[in-house]
Request: fold
Amino acid sequence: MDTFVQQLINGLTIGSIYALIALGYTMVYGILRLINFAHGDIYMVGAYAGFILATSLGFAENPSIFGFGVTLAGAMIIAAAIGMAIERFAYRPVRKFSKMTTLITAIGMSLLIEYLFVFIFSGTPKSFPQLLTNTNITLFGNATISTSQILIFVVSMLLMVFLQWIIYKTKIGKAMRAVSFNINSAKLMGINTDFVISFTFALGSALAAAGGVLTAQYNPKIDPLMGIMTGLKAFVAAVLGGIGNIPGAVLGGLLIGAAETLVVGYGDYVGIPSTYRDAVAFAILILVLLIRPAGLLGSNVQEKV
Amino acid sequence: MTRAFLAICLVLSIFFSACVQKGGTSGGNDSGDTIKVGVYGDMTGPTSSFGQSTKNGIDLAVEEINAAGGVNGKKLVVVSEDDQGRPEQAKTVVSKLISQDKVHAILGEVASTNSLAAAPVAQEAKIPMITPSSTNPKVTEVGDFISRVCFIDPFQGSVMAKFSANTLKAKTAAILGDVNSDYSKGLTQFFEEEFTRLGGKVVAKEAYTQTDPDFKGQLTKIRNLNPDVIYVPGYYGQVGIIAKQARELGMNMPLLGGDGWDSPEIWKLGGDALKNTFISNHYSAENPAPEIQNFVKAYQAKYKVVPDSLAALAYDAAKVLADAIKRAGGTDSAKLRDAINATKDFPGVTGRITLDAKRNAVKPAVVLELMPAEGKFKFKETIAPEGAETAPPTAPGTNTNTTTNTNK
Reply:
């Protein structure tokens, strides 16, 4: 029993990170119908921004909540700026062309960011400094939870609540919903769609960066290619929950995280080796696309042809 | 206007690339007074600490050789290429070294998977390749032009099995390996065989991939079985985190590893969690023997860090190559191959190097304890290959026997 709880805690920890990243995929898709493949790399950029802030401002030497807060906020702001810049200079010029053009641009952007970072920081994994002292809390029996895991849960939940508030209670949130409903009508109603799109990218990128910094606290190894697999899985999470659907992205993220860890923990009993953890996420993607293409919480919308 | 500009750019770029290629070939032919040594390794990828140490070791050796007048009156020139730690890239850069740079011999890779990808290219082109530190047995099985100056995994895996059974008195062990690495798979197999032979029991065999976001799933599973030791035959990028997460889960048993842990980066990644961990390695920088201390001093003077074993092996590989070129009387590929393969009792930093019939070096290994507080590896004990003494083996025949023994 305590092992199961332990595995669940481990799974939900990664799941929360997937959820944070999945939100960015889902919001951008909701508004532009674009799969932003560079989004996983923004997660990596966030981790590196946090790394630079933490080491240059000296938070690495004396762990404090203040230092962590500044690093987290700083990384989110930097990533938001980079996300907006990518949208402005890479996606906006090709937005009027076919969707395929934008998609290929996104893949190109992803590779550009990855190898730009390899070029600048080299591919050697860097060690992210511990910004908060990490202690272990025993729940019961053998089941333990570390403070860095609690931090991931708490911060990601707070950010998701905050996002929900922005989308449903603020004017810009209303504009985002309007643009996602119908971009042309929104434009006719006097909504500055370019600004709304920019804002969406900023918001998604900030959440991914938060994911990056939080992961780096838990698994302090960062490298320029860390966003590829995590980004892909977050994308699967977004599709699982129903792409374009915000609560769906959160649900999908948690489910993928839990499924992955449970495969590692118990896959042997049903004949799945533990190294198939990555395969599981993609098997889920295929099943979802076959059985319920709209995702768990997505509504089935008839495409007009 | 733009179109014309682009067209000009295109023409220019074609012209330049043609020039570069031409320059490369003519430089290759015009090698009257230099000997070109190709070096390939991971300079910017996930194991780049390995590639950089290797390059440093080779550069130091070449510098010393050239300062002493070169080989047969010719200077050695290093041509190095980055394979980013990717097997397919390793293959590409070795092809380039051979066909474009016209190197006479190749030194490289550290990771066995990359050496295995590139070795067939060198074998086919009949260019001798010495890998300083790839320990998977399959590497030199590619062909007679491929050799190495380090011991192989059957021995390295058995060293840690012996250490856990005899010194740590472990009865049960769990193994957590890297599923995509030939190095890790080999060590897993040979550790298990030897540990079982010594009466121990391997209670769990788990695996991870280098991109896993965390390792707690596998570790939680191992925790339930409560083994006496955990063997983690991986690379430094992951093992530091594995140690950290194991300790977070309250698992304080000894963790064991191989030379893949040997990187200055590991202290930053693992920190205090690296207490009570041990690795097998090729040499100890603490060894007071004068040839080792001279090397350590020269390396520290040049690079300001203590050389890891990869640097030491690379240094030895370059010296072995120079020695072979001298004995072969030139760079004729068949003669050079024979000279390398006949290397016997070469006094290297990592021990006396004698290549056996399978072109593997037979040498003792050292077990080191990790001291995270000081950030260094402390010498624990030396374990010699079965049948061979710590002293240099005398006849090549003995060496062949030794390998067969440890291979079983």
Summary: The CA atoms of residues 204 and 224 of chain B lie 10 Å apart. The domain at 34-151+288-363 of chain B is CATH 3.40.50.2300 (Rossmann fold). Confidence is low (pLDDT under 50) at residues 18-30, 388-408 of chain B.
